[in-house]
Amino acid sequence: MEIVFGNRRLSRVLNSEANLVETYGPQNAKTIRVRLAFLAAAPSLKEVPRGKPTRCHELRGNRTGQFAVDLKHPQRLVFVPAHNPVPHLADGGYDLERITAIEIVAVEDYH
Description:
By secondary structure, the chain is an alpha+beta fold. Helices cover 29% and strands 22% of the residues. The chain has a single domain, classed as RelE-like (YaeB-like fold), CATH 3.30.2310. It has helices at residues 8-14, 17-41, and strands spanning 2-5, 57-58, 67-70, 76-81, 101-108. A hairpin with a 5-residue loop joins strand 3 (67-70) and strand 4.
């Protein structure tokens, strides 16, 4: 899957080992690297596991349209489909098989 970053700061942090460790600590930095590699290797969002430890899930409420994967609790890697328009099924749900590009928008605890 293609991965793009929502802003320059996020790109600078997530593309640098030193910045990752400084910003998120060594344990979360390692988990972030693993999750990014896993997302990049998946052909589509449908191939990203819904179960632990990755637990890819769709967000709700004021975060509708966003997805997240688990990091070290309570942190999450938050992203949106990087398609215009976003692929949907006839019933209105997301067509996860056709979502082949994502934009990372945050690493945060949104709870």
